[in-house]
Amino acid sequence: MKLSTALNRENRGIVATVLGIVILLPLGASIVGFVFSGRSEVPDVFLERADPRWETCVQAPEYMRFYHMDFLKEVREDVVRRGIKGGVTLSGCGDCHRNRNQFCDRCHDAASVILDCYGCHFYPETDAERVAGEG
Amino acid sequence: METAEITASAETEVTEQESPEVPPVRRNGRKPVLVDPDLDFIRAMSRTGGDSLKKCFQCGTCSATCPLAPDDRPFPRKEMAWAVWGMKDRLLADPDVWLCHHCNDCSTNCPRSARPGDVLGAVRQQAVIHYALPSFMARWVGSPRFIPILLLIPAVLLGLAIRFRESIGSALGFSVPTGEDIVFSFSAFLPHWLLNSFFGLFCSLAFLAAVAGVWRFAGALRRSDTWGEDPQPVKGRWASVITVFRKILTHENFTFCETDHRRSISHFGVFFGFLALTLVTLWIITGPVNPLIRGDFIYPFSFFSPWKILANLGGMAILAGLLFMIWDRLYFGHLAGTSSYFDWALVWTLFLVVASGFATELLHYLRMAPHRHVAYFTHLVLIFSLLVYLPYSKLAHLLYRTTAMIFAERYGRIVGDPAKKGRAES
Amino acid sequence: MDRRDFIRRSGTLLAGASGALSLPVLSSCTSEVVDAQSLLAGKRMGMVIDLTKCPSDCTACLDACRHENNVAFHDDARWDVHWIRKVNIRPKEEGEGHEEKTVLLMCNHCDDPPCAQVCPVQATYKREDGIVLVDHHRCIGCRYCMIACPYNARFFNYKESEEWPNKDYPKRSHGVAESCNFCAHLVDQGKQPACVQACREAGAGALTFGDLNDSQSEIAGLVAESSVKRIREDWGTEPKVYYIGL
């Protein structure tokens, strides 16, 4: 059907109603989600506070927050391509930031970033795993 | 200076008058009118797209072919007469100027190529300038010479707000996020409270200007002669508002157009896209008080959030509609009508707003800093020029046209539908 | 900041981080930062497989490899990945000198690796010490390397492995090609590859790993003294896996 036919005067009311409903769908989804699961769209806290035992990260927290991807990429290139080993490791993040869901996933979900590290690399979340990871 | 008298019904009966101070009452009972041609107004219209108006020889083909004009005092013939005579007060208080949807059926059928559709467009720009407060802003928005200063104003203001965010924050009782609270890098220099208060302040100013403009326009409409002697409303206030909103949502009036029927599709897309984006924006700024989206880090939404999906769809609808409009204007200009700078300014501002918005989104996903910050800043500057300059730009048509349509609905001036034509008479 | 500058800076950073500053976060890292470029230069790691000592029913090296490197095993020949495998070779002719043989096949870590030459994204590369590695971050899964490899030593992960026996070593996601890496992560720690350790523990001692350029090493002695062969030397790929009794 041609667009002009689909949008002729007789169909305008239906089309406008459908578009209006489409526009209101997110509002409905928000309300339904809130009423039935009590879930707010945005989690209160993205950031997992680091274990207070550790005083500092491998870089300044502000730097890590914005540029950890660049930093980790360079570490990766160092380790894999240039053979500079024994420094920062991906599983080492889990030594301080114990909860991967809060430390990585929630923020990445909100920022629509698909995280591709921990499909292959291991993120230790319990002390037993952490000990195993050190061996 | 010519002085002449014509009747209020604009049936172009002009006679010389010896003493214009005391016009006699005519046989048909209508009040005679003193014509004092405003040459500056004619020149202003000629400069802004109405350069063909002097060709009009008052045959009336335009009113006959107009698919929207009511039977009673149809347009655009009388507007053409007023324009030729430079009758500024009449034109600016005339609802028919705004009931016209620029179908251009009149322009293509005009035997003299006087292009009444384009002339009415020029009249609308003059109306925006006349009712805008302050009116020099509308003059600036309507002239390409002022592009640099119009863009510089929001850029400088936003830059100052970012520069002095800490003192503004302490004055307003907000804290600039530091250290642990920063999640997205732009929230450090452009926190949400700053964004909301900045745009809140200037949009409120624009809102006041819009209200003032609509107030003055409504007053002029009430005094207008278009409704006839002693007009009586045929519809309730809210009933007419609801009918007009239904007509706007369905774009019913556009569908009567024959020459430029494509505008009923392109404007439809832009309209609903704009509506969707407005709704998403309103939803975001309710964040601090909305229990459904509580939290500090409301924005940007996740890509698969229903709101983000709606916003992206809305942006795409605007973009598609705009591209359709631009294509229409560039390649079917004889049908779509002459586009003045005033028209193009709105088209390209909206285009750049959406384009810079998508560019910001893309650069954000590509994690390209500082490109995404620059794109975001540009996007905000353009949004400022769209929203805060609304009462002064062509976008003001959403104020004045809606007002005129509500008045027309209330006083039974039925536009468009042939089946309903003439019903207002009975 | 150009690349070299960054290497210098990050090298300094990492060295400083683990050494002088002794940040607590890094205290769990057992090894010091190693700049392998200088350490590995001049080495030429290789392996000698003594088939005369390799029992045909022993799978110690295969199991050790799977366990150490999380090699995907789905129990389905279409999707299985083998970094090292045992193949029975049946000669066309019969008679003396033409017995059926069990041969261990693996990546030969060629000095002139065809897989690295064809890789369009340079994911496969040869390290300074001659070990051929795959950068799985870069691999786009085009499988040119599988076609190029004359030893059929490269495998593709059609499916992701569900098991993850060795958490110290990453799995591979589906869509990347891989092959034996001589357990480079163990070699960097001064250990022997998992298969060599397992073979020794199983009592066979058929596998020997070491630096071919080091004349004092066990492997250099074996290559010099025994009658060693490499598979299809005539191809000119210069493989570094030597066979005794092939």
Give the secondary structure arrangement, pairings included.
The complex is a heterotrimer of chains A (135), B (426) and C (246).
Chain A: H1 3-6, H2 9-37, H3 61-81, E1 84-85, H4 93-96, H5 100-110, H6 127-134
Chain B: E1 4-7, E2 32-35, H1 39-47, H2 61-65, H3 77-85, H4 88-92, H5 96-99, H6 105-109, H7 116-131, H8 135-141, H9 147-163, H10 165-172, H11 186-189, H12 192-223, H13 237-250, H14 263-285, H15 306-331, H16 333-336, H17 341-365, H18 371-387, H19 397-410
Antiparallel strand pairs in B: 1-2
Helix pairs in contact in B: 1-7, 3-7, 7-8, 9-18, 12-19, 13-19, 14-15, 15-17, 17-18
Chain C: H1 3-18, E1 34-35, H2 36-40, E2 45-50, H3 60-69, E3 84-89, E4 101-106, H4 114-118, E5 124-126, E6 132-134, H5 144-148, E7 155-156, E8 177-178, H6 184-188, H7 194-201, E9 207-211, H8 218-225, E10 228-229, E11 241-244
Helix pairs in contact in C: 3-7
In words, what does this structure look like?
The complex is a heterotrimer of chains A (about 140), B (about 425) and C (about 250). By secondary structure, chain A is mainly α. Chain A contains six helices and one strand. Chain B has a two-stranded antiparallel sheet. In chain B, helix 12 (about 190-225) crosses helix 19, helix 13 (about 235-250) packs across helix 19 and helix 15 packs antiparallel against helix 17. The model of chain B is unreliable at about 1-15 and about 420-425 (pLDDT under 50). By secondary structure, chain C is of the alpha+beta class. Helix content of chain C is about 25%, strand content about 15%. The relative contact order of chain C is 0.20. Chains A and B meet through helix 2, helix 3 and helix 5 of A and helix 14 and helix 15 of B.
- Contiguous low-pLDDT stretches of chain B (5 residues minimum) are 1-17, 420-426
Number of helices of chain B: 19
Number of helices of chain C: 8
Secondary structure tally: strands of chain C: 11
Order of helices and strands of chain C: HEHEHEEHEEHEEHHEHEE
Neighbour order of strands in the largest sheet of chain C: 9-2-11-10
Oligomer: heterotrimer
Question: What would you call the structural class of chain B?
Answer: mainly alpha
Backbone structural class of chain C = alpha+beta
Salient structural properties:
heterotrimer; A: 135 residues; mainly alpha; 6 helices; elongated; B: 426 residues; 19 helices; 2 strands; 57% helix; disordered N terminus; disordered C terminus
